[in-house]
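Project outcomes to date are best conveyed with an example. Our students and postdoctoral researchers have been running inverse folding experiments weekly, and each run begins with a structure described purely in C-alpha cells. The record below, which covers 80 residues, was selected by the lab manager from last quarter's runs and is presented without edits.
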C-alpha cells in the first residue's frame, strides 16, 4: 500500500525547480517527486540489449576467441 509523505521547509528555489521539472515532464508535483526519488534510489535495470552492448564493449579490446582450455589455463596461472 502506498505511503503518504509530507515534505516541510522546501527552499523556494528548489520548489521552483521541482515545479518547472514537473511542468516540463507534464506531471503533477507528486508524480515528479516520485520519479526523481525512483531515479535516485532505485537501481536501474538494464535491458537485454544494453547488457549485450556492455559485454561487447568490455570484450572488444580482448584478443579471442577463447576456448574453455584457454580459460582454465588462465585461471590456474599464478596459483600455487
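After processing, the design step wrote out the following sequence:
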Amino acid at each position: 500500500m502506498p505511503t503518504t509523505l509530507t515534505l516541510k521547509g522546501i527552499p523556494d528555489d528548489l520548489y521552483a525547480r521541482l515545479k518547472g521539472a514537473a511542468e516540463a515532464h507534464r506531471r503533477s508535483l507528486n508524480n515528479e517527486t516520485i520519479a526523481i526519488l525512483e531515479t535516485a534510489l532505485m537501481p536501474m535495470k538494464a535491458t537485454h540489449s544494453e547488457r549485450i552492448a556492455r559485454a561487447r564493449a568490455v570484450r572488444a579490446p580482448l584478443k579471442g576467441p577463447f576456448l574453455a582450455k584457454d580459460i582454465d589455463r588462465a585461471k590456474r596461472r599464478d596459483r600455487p
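The chain has one domain: 12-76. The chain has a mean pLDDT of 90. The training component of this project remains on track.
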